[in-house]
């Protein structure tokens, strides 16, 4: 079905469910399309001028159509409240459960026209974020006075381990963007001033793209970033190296964080 619709292959744990829902919706739409087309052709035949030389100015006198419409509203309400909402609740994963699974945490900061990433470092804690400190676009705005932030590091590529949940806190520094990773089947608006969580679990190691899915300026089409899903070991080594380098830099300058925007 995905190949038929031109959709990129799925590489996340929950993506199969998303694809399944999209497929079901497409099949329903196909059934509706066929049904309405048949009804349209029937009306063309039933009400054409040759069969009805004289127009009928009174039209339908009974209330069948009103009853039908009320019936449709009731059936749709039952489908939505009785089936769709409970199913959604049951099938979607909960943020609290993901948080218990020792996820990788990273902030994605969108700006015109790229993405910057802020990792919490070896202590697993993000430094305090103070947006008043923003010195340039894509600045993660880490408060240099907070010791939790001294081992935080930034990167221009999203690197995450395979088979482990990742929580990305999505934000922006200038206008509204939209952070989308199609192979992971996730997408979230990036809004200045807000850190909004989004999560997924990659199932294979790969290199792919993240894109901006919200028209955000003249270079929006080039707002594409790299993403690497790597083995747990190489992720740990990389994160430890980056974190140690940051800590060394920040302890030298005694609290004045210098986190470069790549
Ligand atoms: Cu954008």
TrEMBL record:
<keyword id="KW-1278">Translocase</keyword>
<dbReference type="GO" id="GO:0005507">
    <property type="term" value="F:copper ion binding"/>
</dbReference>
<dbReference type="GO" id="GO:0004129">
    <property type="term" value="F:cytochrome-c oxidase activity"/>
</dbReference>
<feature type="transmembrane region" description="Helical">
    <location>
        <begin position="20"/>
        <end position="45"/>
    </location>
</feature>
<keyword id="KW-1133">Transmembrane helix</keyword>
<feature type="transmembrane region" description="Helical">
    <location>
        <begin position="66"/>
        <end position="88"/>
    </location>
</feature>
<dbReference type="GO" id="GO:0042773">
    <property type="term" value="P:ATP synthesis coupled electron transport"/>
</dbReference>
<keyword id="KW-0249">Electron transport</keyword>
<feature type="domain" description="Cytochrome oxidase subunit II copper A binding">
    <location>
        <begin position="101"/>
        <end position="241"/>
    </location>
</feature>
<dbReference type="InterPro" id="IPR008972">
    <property type="entry name" value="Cupredoxin"/>
</dbReference>
<dbReference type="GO" id="GO:0016020">
    <property type="term" value="C:membrane"/>
</dbReference>
<keyword id="KW-0186">Copper</keyword>
<comment type="similarity">
    <text>Belongs to the cytochrome c oxidase subunit 2 family.</text>
</comment>
<dbReference type="InterPro" id="IPR045187">
    <property type="entry name" value="CcO_II"/>
</dbReference>
<dbReference type="InterPro" id="IPR002429">
    <property type="entry name" value="CcO_II-like_C"/>
</dbReference>
<keyword id="KW-0479">Metal-binding</keyword>
<keyword id="KW-0813">Transport</keyword>
<keyword id="KW-0812">Transmembrane</keyword>
<dbReference type="InterPro" id="IPR001505">
    <property type="entry name" value="Copper_CuA"/>
</dbReference>
<dbReference type="Pfam" id="PF00116">
    <property type="entry name" value="COX2"/>
</dbReference>
<dbReference type="InterPro" id="IPR036257">
    <property type="entry name" value="Cyt_c_oxidase_su2_TM_sf"/>
</dbReference>
<protein>
    <recommendedName>
        <fullName>cytochrome-c oxidase</fullName>
        <ecNumber>7.1.1.9</ecNumber>
    </recommendedName>
</protein>
<keyword id="KW-0472">Membrane</keyword>
């Amino acid at each position: 079905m995905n190949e038929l619709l031109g959709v990129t292959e799925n590489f996340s744990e929950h993506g199969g469910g998303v694809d399944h829902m999209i497929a079901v919706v497409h099949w329903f739409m196909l059934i509706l399309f066929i049904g309405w087309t048949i009804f349209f052709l029937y009306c063309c035949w039933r009400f054409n001028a040759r069969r009805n030389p004289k127009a009928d100015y009174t039209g339908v006198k009974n209330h069948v159509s009103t009853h039908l419409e009320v019936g449709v509203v009731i059936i749709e309400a039952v489908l939505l409240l009785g089936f769709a909402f409970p199913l959604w609740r049951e099938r979607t994963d909960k943020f609290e459960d993901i948080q218990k699974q020792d996820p990788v945490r990273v902030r994605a900061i969108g700006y015109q026209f790229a993405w910057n990433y802020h990792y919490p470092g070896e202590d697993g804690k993000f430094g305090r974020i103070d947006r008043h400190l923003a010195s340039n676009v894509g600045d993660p705005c880490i408060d240099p006075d907070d010791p939790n932030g001294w081992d935080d590091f930034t990167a221009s590529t999203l690197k995450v381990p395979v088979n482990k949940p990742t929580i990305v806190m999505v934000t922006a520094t200038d206008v509204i963007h939209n952070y989308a990773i199609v192979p992971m089947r996730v997408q979230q608006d990036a809004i200045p001033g807000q850190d909004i969580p989004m999560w997924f679990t990659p199932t294979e190691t790969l290199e792919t793209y993240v894109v901006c899915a919200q028209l955000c300026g003249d270079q929006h089409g080039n707002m594409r970033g790299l993403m690497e899903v790597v083995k747990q070991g190489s992720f740990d080594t990389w994160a430890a190296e980056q974190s140690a380098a940051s800590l060394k830099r920040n302890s030298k300058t005694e609290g004045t964080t210098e986190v470069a925007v790549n």
